[in-house]
Design goal:
By secondary structure, the chain is mainly α. The protein has helices spanning 2-16, 19-28, 42-49, 51-71, 84-100, 113-123, 125-142, 145-163, 171-187, 189-197.
Length: 210
């Protein structure tokens, strides 16, 4: 039990690192939550801080998911009998929840997409590529990141079901895929309202002078 508690706490803290807030304050002297969409995620970082800084923020956010899923999940303090897949899922989800509700910024962080992507590629590389392709296609057609993110998330359990024919994924991984689809849609609920009203903005990044 102690092992699981430590994994959850460390993964949550890793996910809670408010990358975009730190970069915006150190490199631009602003709080990113006061600009753009007001969200402390990678997309808004690109929009407000430019491609170079914003892309770095995204890479770090993805790395938080990888760190928790592949490394922190391997910590062992006492004997543990849980399925290794389940332990990785617990670690990855803890990091995602930390990113969304970060303890370091009043429990208001990003929408979890980048960190979820890191976890996804750690667990399901092929499914991750499928979701990435769907994200890119929807973004190309609509120029709307929120719709692209939700489309990719919803496609995840479908991709896993299809891939189960080639690889025997555990039920825990399938349940995770369904949960992630629901969670990502939930974190985009304000975007859904704007989409229904036709008020959701198209993706544009601030030109970087770096």
């Amino acid at each position: 039990m102690l092992t699981i508690i430590v994994i959850i706490i460390l993964s949550y803290l890793a996910g809670s690192i408010p990358t975009s807030i730190i970069f915006s304050k150190l490199l631009r002297g602003i709080d990113i939550r006061d600009h753009g969409s007001g969200n402390a995620g990678g997309t808004n970082a690109i929009r407000v801080l430019g491609w170079k800084i914003g892309s770095t923020v995204m890479i770090i956010d993805i790395g938080k998911g990888v760190l928790a899923t592949l490394l922190i999940s391997q910590i062992r303090i006492d004997p543990i009998s849980l399925n290794p897949d389940l332990i990785q899922i617990i670690a990855g989800l803890s990091a995602i929840l930390g990113h969304i509700w970060t303890i370091f910024a009043g429990f208001k962080g990003g929408k979890g997409v980048g960190t979820a992507a890191g976890m996804l590629f750690s667990l399901y590389p092929v499914a991750g590529l499928i979701c990435l392709a769907i994200f890119g296609l929807v973004l190309l057609l609509t120029k709307t990141v929120s719709l692209s993110s939700m489309s990719a998330a919803i496609s995840l359990p479908i991709a896993v079901l299809i891939l189960k024919g080639w690889r025997d994924y555990s039920n825990e991984l399938l349940y995770f895929a369904i949960f992630m689809a629901v969670l990502i849609v939930f974190t985009h609920r304000s975007n859904i309202k704007r989409l229904l009203k036709g008020e959701e903005g198209k993706f544009k990044s601030k030109k970087s002078n770096e």
